[in-house]
């Protein structure tokens, strides 16, 4: 009897694994976009420290987004292989709060300037 014939072995639908990988890539695209915006803002606002701070905030948020995405990718992969649902996590809520907060600060800085 081979490992594939072992009783209790679950077949993993490869579509779930590929969807998990696509989700990781979406997290990474978002992280790269945030970091690119942060670099652009920090470079173009060399004479305005508040805008430079927002640019650095975007760089940090983008870095955290990549880490959150990778952590969720690993957790979802383990859950898929174990035949259970992945835990929801707080990553998306944290990223949303960070983006909304930085956007509000950016609007405030531009309106007060």
Automatic annotation (TrEMBL):
Record keyword Transmembrane helix present: yes
Localization annotation: Cell membrane
Entry's transmembrane regions: 24-45, 51-70, 91-112
DUF202 domain: residues covered: 15-78
Coiled-coil stretches: none
Domain of life: Bacteria
InterPro entries linked to this entry: DUF202, IM_YidH-like
UniProt keyword terms in alphabetical order: Cell membrane, Membrane, Transmembrane, Transmembrane helix
Keyword Transmembrane listed: yes
Membrane disposition: Multi-pass membrane protein
Pfam families, alphabetized: DUF202 (PF02656)
The name this protein goes by in its record: DUF202 domain-containing protein
Species of origin: Luedemannella flava
């Amino acid at each position: 009897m081979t490992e594939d014939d072992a009783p209790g072995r679950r077949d993993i639908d490869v579509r779930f694994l590929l969807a998990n990988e696509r989700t990781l890539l979406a997290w990474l695209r978002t992280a790269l976009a945030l970091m690119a915006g942060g670099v652009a803002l920090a470079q173009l606002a060399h004479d305005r420290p508040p805008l430079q701070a927002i640019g650095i905030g975007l760089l940090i948020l983008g870095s955290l987004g990549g880490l959150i995405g990778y952590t969720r990718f690993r957790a979802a992969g383990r859950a898929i292989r174990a035949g259970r649902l992945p835990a929801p996590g707080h990553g998306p809520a944290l990223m949303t709060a960070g983006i909304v907060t930085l956007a509000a600060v950016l609007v405030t800085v531009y309106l007060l300037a």
